[in-house]
Amino acid sequence: MSQADAAFAKGLEGIIAGETTICSVEQGGLFYRGYEIHDLAKNATFDQVAFLLLEGHKPSPAELDRFKAEIRKERPIPHHVTRFLQETGPALKAGTAVPMDVLRSAVSILAHTDPDCQSVAADANLRKAKRLLAKVPTIIGQMQNVIDGRPLVAPETGGDPALDHAANLMYLMSGQKPSPEYARVVDVSLILYAEHDFNASTFTSRVIAGTLSDMHGAVTGGIAALKGPLHGGANEMAMEMLKEIMHDVGEKGIGTKAVDDWMQRAFDTKRKLMGFGHRVYKNGDHRAPILHALGRAIAEKDTRNPGGHAALQWFRLGEQVQAIMLDKKKIHPNVDFPCGLTYFTMGIPVPQYTPIFVASRVSGWCAHVMEQHANNRLIRPLSAYRGEPPRKWNA
After folding, report:
1. Longest dimension (CA), the chain
2. In the prediction, which pLDDT does 274 show?
3. How far is it, in rounded angstroms, from Cα 221 to Cα 214?
4. Which position among 231, 260, 302, 309 bears the catalytic label?
């Protein structure tokens, strides 16, 4: 047996591929630099969590004020990036381009005029990390304005300097300042999505950084990995699945055998149901109930439709689907499932769910890029060869 055969694990499952001080994903909890996720979701803001990830410790009030001022200063995006978004507008509207691909390209374009782009020094990396954290929400928001045919929102300032990260993202996307309740729900969702150790997109970023390539390149690769429906794209696919069920069974079918029958057909045809299961968590994703509770509370107060709480019907459907999955398959939802429901309840366009994930996870990616560069070794695993045995070309 070869060395590669002895160490083989499909998908690297169970393989320790490196060390980190940033995040610990455990059966009993999720920790960012030692702080447990329920504690952070209840007591911290995303701005504080981003500082924690990027600068390595809990910020003092003065440090947080300084950090937020640095981020606000970097929110505007260059004119050439704005032009790219506007020129891509027809393709976005036609569906031939999708927001995650446009965001990926826009981040890559940002590199060309970043004065620190080619440096992998620690101070340059931290400056780039803050610029990316600041500019990604602006790209997302202005992209949505282009899709909707609205004027760009505050392009000179990248939004409203008085708003924190989550609230400003929502403002940029719609031109409307969110209620404190909506802003807090999105803020918590960003906390939950900020970091998750060596997940597919973070590992991609670290592999790129391990070659001593630059941070913009590593983050661009992370975005490409996050797009996939088996990773970040699951929140969009989970909501599309629920919309399909609702279309097929109708609101009157919620809570009835009709949903059970729909799910059984999905099981019988071996359909992949997105938003469920996790490679690490076997007894449930610690983040999912946090976001579910916040989203359901929003749905219970929904009064946009006369005569009823329409948004709550979606949560009731989601809860029924969750119960069937747990009963029939013993599989728990991951955070992407309540994320889709929660963002849908707040009226956020489904194609922007994963880009919003980027607005959060970029903090984790950049932290990992900096950690990789600070103690680097090229990431180069072995493979288990399964091809033809040695043979002669002219045999």
Report:
1. 80
2. 87
3. 11
4. 231
Catalytic residue, chosen from 114, 164, 285, 336, is: 336
pLDDT the model gives residue 308 = 41
CATH number of 29-227+357-374: 1.10.580.10
Q: Two tokens at 346?
A: 């707040």
Whether 336 sits among the annotated catalytic residues: the reply is yes
Map out the domains of the chain as residue ranges.
29-227+357-374, 234-345
Q: Rounded to an integer, what distance in angstroms lies between the CA atom of residue 256 and that of residue 1? A: 54
Question: What sign for the dihedral angle of Cα 268, 273, 230, 284?
Answer: negative
Q: Which of 165, 196, 278, 373 is catalytic?
A: 278
- Sheet of strand 29-32: strand arrangement: 23-26, 29-32, 35-36
**CA 138/CA 155 separation, integer angstroms:** 8
The CATH code belonging to domain 234-345 is: 1.10.230.10
What DSSP state is assigned to residue 214? -
pLDDT tens-digit readout, 205-214: 999 999 999 9
Residue 373 is a catalytic residue: no
Query: What's the rounded Cα separation, in Å, for the pair 268 and 328?
Result: 12
How do residues 92-102 score in pLDDT, each as one tens digit? 999 999 999 99
Tens of pLDDT, residues 214-273: 999 999 999 999 999 888 888 899 999 999 999 999 888 898 999 999 999 999 999 988
- Report the distance separating Cα 105 and Cα 77, nearest Å: 14
C-alpha angle 221-223-229 in degrees, rounded to nearest 5: 115
pTM: 0.93
Phi, psi of 182, deg, nearest 5: -65, -45
pLDDT in tens, 36-63: 999 999 999 999 999 999 999 999 999 9
